[in-house]
Specification:
- The chain is α/β, with parallel strands linked by helices.
- It contains seven helices and five strands; from the N terminus they run αβαββαβαβααα.
- It is 40% helix and 13% strand.
- Strands 2-3-4-1-5 form a five-stranded parallel beta sheet, with helices on both faces.
- Helix 3 links the parallel strand 3 and strand 4.
- Helix 3 crosses helix 4.
- The protein is elongated, with a radius of gyration of 19 Å.
Length: 202
């Protein structure tokens, strides 16, 4: 299969996940400034599964450092408090746990960047921790076009030689219309199949 992708000018399927992670290029569709350590505040990213919360957390971690912590559903581990910390799946903590942790964060002037499925502003307010909220919206055609093009380019064997693989605006529009409100991760599964089918049929 790898040889088929190489014949199409690609090193791999641009929409394949590697070791359970999205290793494609980062597309910043939020336009947010990088988080700053020691602010004594919460920045929460609210979105459905696959919206891009973890992708943004890990991108910021790579850019400015800090400490990343994934909150397992059944884990009793306490998320870290530090100058700059990233909590993934923060909604799995109870309000009681959050209030206690947010109070510590306020005292220590910790910056918390949290990926969550629910709004954490109420426990943050009760703890006196300033917070900002970013809600991931629906994927639209311009965002999807930019995301697709960046992945196709990143997977090229030689950027001077375009790939024979093409994904048209019409195909992207059909995907969005057939799956209203779909996240980038799940539309990526559909695109994986579209690209695989193209290279198999050439």
């Amino acid at each position: 299969m790898t040889d088929l992708y190489r014949r199409a000018g690609l090193t791999r399927n641009p929409f394949a996940w590697v070791d359970g992670r999205d290793n494609g290029p980062f597309v910043d569709h939020l336009g947010l400034p990088l988080p700053e350590a020691g602010r004594g505040s919460l920045r929460q990213l609210i979105g459905d599964q696959g919206a891009g919360k973890t992708t943004h957390l890990r991108f910021w971690l790579d850019q400015v450092g800090g400490q990343y912590h994934y909150i397992d559903r059944d884990s009793t581990a306490v998320p870290p408090i530090g100058p700059l910390v990233y909590w993934d799946e923060a909604d799995r903590l109870s309000d009681r746990q959050l209030i206690a942790l947010f109070r510590r964060a306020k005292e220590c002037r910790s910056t918390i960047v949290a990926g969550t499925h629910r709004d954490l502003s109420r426990p943050a307010k009760r703890a006196g921790l300033p917070n900002t909220t970013v809600v991931f919206g629906a994927v639209d055609l311009p965002l999807l076009r930019s995301w697709v093009d960046s992945r196709l380019e990143a997977a090229l064997i030689d950027r001077r030689q375009p790939s024979t693989v093409r994904v048209s605006d019409e195909e992207l529009r059909d995907l969005l219309e057939s799956r209203p409100g779909v996240s980038l991760r799940f539309v990526g599964d559909d695109l994986h199949r579209i690209v695989a089918r193209q290279v198999l049929n050439r």
